[in-house]
Amino acid sequence: MQLTHLTLPRTRESVAAYSRLVANKYVEHQALWSMLQARPDASREFLYRTEITDDGLEVYVLSPKALSPEGPWRARTREYAPKVRAGQLVGFSLRVSPTEDKAQGLNARSKRVDMVMDRYQAAGGEVDVQTIAQGVAADWLERREESSGFRVVDCSAGNYRRFDVTKRGQHMTKLSYLDITGTLEVQDPARFLTKLATGYGKAKFAGCGLMLLSAPK
Length: 217
Description:
Layout: E1 2-9, H1 15-23, H2 25-35, E2 47-53, E3 56-63, E4 74-79, E5 89-96, E6 99-102, E7 111-114, H3 115-122, H4 129-142, H5 145-148, E8 150-167, E9 170-186, H6 189-198, E10 211-214
Antiparallel strand pairs: 1-3, 1-4, 2-3, 5-9, 5-10, 6-7, 8-9
């Protein structure tokens, strides 16, 4: 796999491209798709995450092949093949779409809900969103421990956001994301690395699911 760090400086030349990307997740996704030179009918084979900084836009992309950016984009690409062992502690940063399927009543179909907003509303607004988000982050990760080959040591949540996704001017859906950082203990290296490559949770097309690793703090 290839990990590419893209930057789009906020300059006079890039202001139009910058404005389009930060305003629409669909446009953002299509821009990365074109850099991979993928066919329109091909399946998505990349994970990504965007960050808006004082200097412009930063995007991390994990993909089977290197990207081919054009225009004002700058890119640094490296081979991504982390080596981990059972019992190893790793720091992580992960943006997720915190959803779950919730039963709507007897004999009714379940409905996918935003875990943070659902629990906030259930609490009658008496618990602040940040406290709710912290509990959701721990719950969301712990549910995935066995299938992902890790154990949660500690985690912290922040930057909860809700946004609309539109395609060619038409509303597609409303999504949310939550940034989670912390420390994991690797339990099953093979399972851990497989999940790292395929991503976590829903809304991968909107920049969720890419876990970035670091030394534990």
